[in-house]
# Entry
Amino acid sequence: MWMPTEHEKYGVVLASFRATVPHGLSLEIGDTVQILEKCEGWYRGFILKNPNCKGIFPACYIHLKNANVKNKGQFETVIPTEDSVITEMTSTLRDWGTMWKQLYVKNEGDLFHRLWHVMNEILDLRRQVLVGHLTHDRMKDVKQHITARLDWGNEQLGLDLVPRKEFSMVDPDEISVTELYKLMEHRHRKKETPVQASTHHLFVQMKSLMCSNLGEELEVFFSLFDSKESRPISERFFVRLNKNGLPKSPEKTERQTTLFVDLGNNDLRKDVYITVHIIRIGRMGAGEKKNVNNVQYRRPFGCAVISVADLLTGDCKDDQILKVYTCNTENEWYQIHENIIRKLNARYNLTGSNTGLAVSLQLFHGDLEQIRREYMVLFTRGVAITKKLGFSDIIMPGEMRNDLYITLERGEFEKGGKSVARNIEITVYVLDGDGQLLKSYISAGSAEPPLSEFHSFVLYHNNSPRWSEPLKLPIPVDLFRGSHVRFEFRHCSTKEKGEKKLFGFSFVPLMQEDGRTLPDGTHELIVHKCEENANLQDSARYLKLPFSKAGLPGNNQAVKITKESFWITSFLCSTKLTQNGDMLDLLKWRAHPERIADSLSKLKEIDGSEIVKFLQDTLDTLFGILDENAQRFGLKVFDCLVHIINLLQDSKFQHFKPVMDTYIESHFAGTLSYRDLIKVLKWYVDRIIEAEHHDHIQQVLKAAEYIFKYIVQSRRLFSLATGGQNEEEFRCCIHELFMSIRFFLSQESKGSSPVTQTQAVFLKTFPAVYCELLKLFNIREVANFVRDTLGSLPAVTHVDCPLEAVKLQCIAKTVESQLYTNSESRCILLPVVLHHLNMHLQEQKDLVMCARILSSMFSLIKKDSTETSVTEEIDMIVESLLGILLRTILEITNRPQPAGTALRLQFQDVTGEFVACLLALLRQMTDKHYQQLLESFSNKDDLRDFLLQIFTVFRILIRQEMFPKDWTVMRLVTNNVIITTVLYLSDALRKNFLNEHFDYKVWDSYFYLSVIFINQPCLQLEMFSPSKKKKILEKYGDMRVMMGCEIFSMWQNLGEHKLNFIPAMIGPFLEVTLVPQPDLRNVMIPIFHDMMDWEQRRSGSFKQVEAKLIDKLDSLMSEGKGDETYRELFNSILLKKIERETWRESGISLIATVTRLMERLLDYRDCMKVGEVDGKKIGCTVSLLNFYKTELNKEEMYIRYIHKLYDLHLKAQNYTEAAYTLLLYDELLEWSERPLREFLNYPMQTEWQRKEYLHLTIIQNFDRGKCWENGIILCRELADQYETYYDYRNLSKMRMMEASLYDKIMDQQRLEPEFFRVGFYGKKFPFFLRNKEFVCRGHDYERLEAFQQRMLNEFPHAIAMQHVNQPDETIFQAEAQYLQIYAVSPIPDSQDVLQRDGVPDNIKSFYKVNHIWKFRYDRPFHKGAKDKENEFKSLWVERTTLTLVQSLPGISRWFEVEKREVVEMSPLENAIEVIENKNLQLRTLITQCQARQMQNINPLTMCLNGVIDAAVNGGLARYQEAFFIKDYIVNHPEDGEKIGRLRELMFEQAHILEYGLAVHEKFVPQDMRPLHKKLVDQFHLMKSSLGIQDFPAYVRASPIHFTNGSPRICRNSVPNAISPEGARLTSRRSPLSYPAVNRYSSSSLSSQASNEVSNITGQSESSDEVFNMQPSPSTSSLSSTHSASPNVTSSAPSSARGSPLLSDKQKHSRDNFCLSPRERPCSAIYPNQVEPTQRMLSHPPGENCLPRSDPNLAAPEKVVNPTPSSWSLDSGKEANSQVTECVGKLVSPPVPPRPQHQGSPARNIRSLSPVATPRSPQKSSMQSFTPSPTECHTSGLVSNSPGLSGSYSSGISTLSRCSVSETSGAETQPSDHLLTTSVSSGSDELIRRENKTPPPYSVYERSNSRRPVPLPHSLSVPITTDPPALPPKPHQLRSNKLENDGKRCEQVSRPRPLPRKVSQL
# Structure
């Protein structure tokens, strides 16, 4: 049975558990679980990180831990009782674990590894803490280390700053807000600005001396030298080196490393140097031979220096190589280091280029003990400590030193009978009073043990040597008295004996008889003569002699006896001995009573270090004198005591304060001293006002703290001794003293008078007196003393008075004192504190100190304090300070921040402290306080001002910059206080400012505050980790929901006043609803229904609501707010709300519009997240742009997205699309002088200027996109404007630019892009793509495979469909993404330029692939039974024509397909088209060959070979077998004309081949003659196989004529016999849609086909390899298993088509449904017009259309449906009825007119041709048949055409060609008949097409009227050789076409309003 657990509440999972049992809960090792119930070895509970999922798990898998349970029962909370540091460590490591893995994913390797090491370190420390074996101190260190590591990791990972107190996390509810702020600020400041250490230590390690001429041992001395004062500042570090220049004792690191300790900041200057002196031990001269007796001398060697400042800038850890210098003359050795520093080069030389001293130098900062802890290894190995000379900057009381420093300065010696100067060596000894040698008391430097005797270095032949060699004598204090130092002088002979002869000595005693030590300074000692054998052992003999010349009387004979002297400098650093006689006189005052007054007077002149040495003795002396003779010496003793007390205020001696405190508590015995001290102190205070000089009085008041300490201690001792006698007398004296103090404090004075300064001095020391008074008085008495004293201060002070700041400092110390902590005394002090605070805050002075005082006040008030006294205090503070506090925060936050870093930090601290104080006050306020506060306002105006003020302050507190970004804890506390306060104040708002007292400003401020409160980042819990979110919810709940409910409640109370906030609050409320919190959304979304309802009541519609919603949605969603869930919730809630409203329909419309906008905005945002620009981004932007224009009519948003789209195109280098995009904005502007405001990146300018700038930018982009024809039109328009304004300068530039564009058309090559149809199916696609199909314009050189891969990269989750069938509904509704991609061929609009003779291909290529509305895709299939012998009998073709909503190129690289049209084509029609296309190809090549346009004849050779070889092998015969047999003719009587046409084409092909062979023979090179002969032979076989003995008469009578230039007959023409009745209409949509013919496919059939099937299907295996033609565009489908033969479908890449194995690979899929290639001409299989018998799946007719010369359409189809330009981008809903809109548009292409050449080769050749005869009586009206390739259009068929590649094969095999043939003029129906037919056949379709909106911009006029032109037969030659007239220049059509345009506009009534102009943009 399951039982609730009592003690087993919390545990950690020991091993992972898989929930294989029913109701099991899966556990991972390390999870923490809360246990609810237990049953027979099983627990039931949940994992703490996922409390919603409960289950059972084995008890043995859980390690139980102690925990406290809060709220026992269903909602109990478990808190582990372990150490808080361990708890924090565990939770922090869990959070880090997740983020640590993300660092690896983000490739942040450095932080990843560092964090890994820190985590391991924390885990190791955690184990140490959990074991529990650490000492208290060690535990403290470990916790400090842990918290430091945790803070480092949190900072690196951007986590929150954790407030801590003594290493433990602080609960914000347990401390006041001000205390929390201090903790946060302290940790933040510690993190930001590390405290600069005031103490530094220099680490030195001697490595080696690198020198080539070593061979002697060396002594190296390091020291610090102050070049500014020319003195050493440290002791010396001494290292001995061996003969190799390495340390003699390498195993003893303390002998080669040292730490120069206790360096101050002042010692790290540029003029402080490390000096190195090197002494060699050996022969006198460096080059001398070794002495026989091997005597060693210390001789100078070299010196090196380096500045300490250099160590601060460089990397000190690297070894330093110091250059070593030698002295030129030994006389200068004593100052060689100074010469090197001063760079006196003449006095020293470099020892050698390869000589150097290798040392390691490093600076450490901080306390020495801290350095020991941090660098334990350094100190463990051993390091010598080198001290500073003298005391450090701070003298510690326990420091024990007794060091005497003696420097051997110089000497003056006589020659002593020598001819040369002596070589003098000094030997130093220390001897005691008995003359015994004191051993080991001479130190030459640290790191080496002290010596018993010391030998100086020797200067060669120098009777005035200067050594400057320092020594340290660390003699104990007890040995100092009677000891002396003896200096013996010897001459060192350089003779072979090398003896050292004693010739004199000096000595100096260390202490005088009166106890004073040897004074500091330089001493000139007497050199006493002596012989070598003199006995100096008996020191008593010479100690009676004088030792110093300074102490000799003037007539002393010793001075006359010797002229020799020896100088030393001494310096004593002792904490026990003194050199001062005055100090000794004072201490021995009883021995000389008459000197007391003099000694007391001289005390002030004694150095402070001497006084603190004997502090206790001095104090005993002073109080002894006071007790024995107070009347006489009382004042002087008091002054001496004041001097000593103030001496301890000095930073150097401040650490001796505890010594004095200890003296007072333990050693002071002056029981009666208090009377004299009070008396003298009162005497000084009473004299303050009258005194002229206040310096001494101020010194007395500075010492007031310790004076009161002595007074209090003396009185306590007296009371203990007497049992409390004279208590009243003492109290009376204290009261009188304070009355005197209050009197002098109450004095008012101007400026900084002496009295004011004295008042300030007293106030600084006064708070220190409180604690002393509390020892004798109760707390209320002391509080009254303080209150009265502070209350006596003058109320009015002057601006420059220094007393103000000091007054606040005094109050601050009072508030921080023990006195204020007690609630009993606090209620006495609080009024006076508040009074002074109020005064200062009113004047906004000393805000830093005011903030400090307030912080201290509120720190004492806990959150849950319920004491009555606390409530009363809060009442007083609220009444006195709340208003001024709010005003202060407003003022300081509105001030500009100071420039300096320090000032700015102080400013931020002050602001933060005031904010913390306000929050602390508000958090302590209860219902009663709020009620009293609101009742305190006398009128509503005051209440209104207060509410506005506090709401404004709250908005400031919510700002991001108020606290550092990682202060989440502080922000949450702030928000909790704000929402609590707002809930209280909202009642006041409802009660006082509704109905007739309604105040918009207050309500607006309230709503604004609520909105920004909900939207602040620190409350967006969704962004936090689960653990952080859980903690916040447990402590505070979701404050957003609470505030949202309050907003809704307040909104409901507004009633009719809601109208005041419509539409102003729509945007803010919408922002709130976008917060991803379901409860908040459910509360806030209904407000929009309320707004719609009230707006409907007011104005009858809610257009304002709709407009505001739409405007705000765009900006908010672009910021990342909102999601799909919100869209659905918005839709469902509001639809449900408006169900019963009368305005339901309009409401549904609004909701639908907003919902659709959200769909597009969400799609847009999702697309923009991707880094690179892709089609998805551009397509999404186009969709949104269209939506803003067509559905929302939001002009400004429309223009903004135009520019966003423009930027995307520029980034993707889609320059043509960028130009089209910018034209959208250009169209909205006119050539007017209307001023436009500054907008986006445009300055304020006129509309003309902006349009000019746009024109130039668009021209530039058209130029970069190689769309020069469009740029020319804009150049002309701009030139017209310049001409109008007579701006000839710019006109000239524009004309030159136009000319350059013409040059580029003729000179530069342009690539023709591929086009691809893409279907996006499935619900996972964005809205603008979902279940739609598009045609995309590919990039340069991009083929199908590359395009397919690009699309799959853009949609990585998409599935490529392996067929081209239209998908069914299951695909449409699937929760997936399906892509269907295949290539399509463009169907260019017809235009005359494509049919002109002599028009270069550079020009024609543009019109083939630009302004394309329609695209075609062909699929061959077999209908009925397939004939295996001849598959052509059943080979049908399904042709799909796709019509787009806009032409390509345009504002996007892809546009949606608006209409699909499917037509089936019979086998016979297919055969006719294939042969026609092959004939056309042959003509083109023959023409190029004749005109010598081909660089070589290979293409013609290939084509002839392919056709002849395929025909010989049975290609044409297959057609004969299929269509010329009797059965077929009988069964298909309707195909009679078509069969005749096929026969004619076959004969025509043979005729062309014959002529082609003749041309080929003329140009074929010699090496290809055998091939030509073979072709001729095969051609004869071909004719015989076709049964052609001779050509028919009409063929023979019409030899082929090739004129110069391109043929005038379209290559895609199909004879009318194919479809005499069929008609299809084409609607022109945009003047930018230039007509262009289709291009030819490059895939052809090869003559190498090895079997009948390959002949029939036209597969080629060798042509590409043999002739190396240009590669064709790839058109392979997505599926290799569903594609037909590559030559049938051209779906294989060009490389595959040239593969020898291709036919084998593709045979199995020949019959499959396949993708249409791009290489095919527009149609190789299907004609444009169809028989009535053909099945037309979609048949769009036209109305009132004129014929057009479209090579892809039959004559009945060539009609124009004029569709004027519209402003919209989407499917059209508007038309233009204005005739004038057609003016200014250009119809003709920008091609200059070409003059007619009378002597053209075409005329000459044509004159030789015989007259043509009709082919049959039935066709007498047709023109004569002239199968001349001149009549064919050559574009796309030349050898260098990018659309041409592969082999040339017979027309029979070319099933994959996609060109469409036209009907001849003879077979064309009359135009009026065609128009009638077209109108009657599809009026419904026309209506639909007329409603379609064309592209918004066009360079050419769409409604271009053209006369009907009969189309000639494809093989006929026009009667005249004159080319048809070129169309007029576009600018001429502006006026010429008005009439026709007007007529057309009347015929097609499509009203189109003028485009709206953007008034301000």
User: Anything to note?
Assistant: The longest strand covers residues 1435-1448. The CA atoms of residues 767 and 814 lie 6 Å apart.
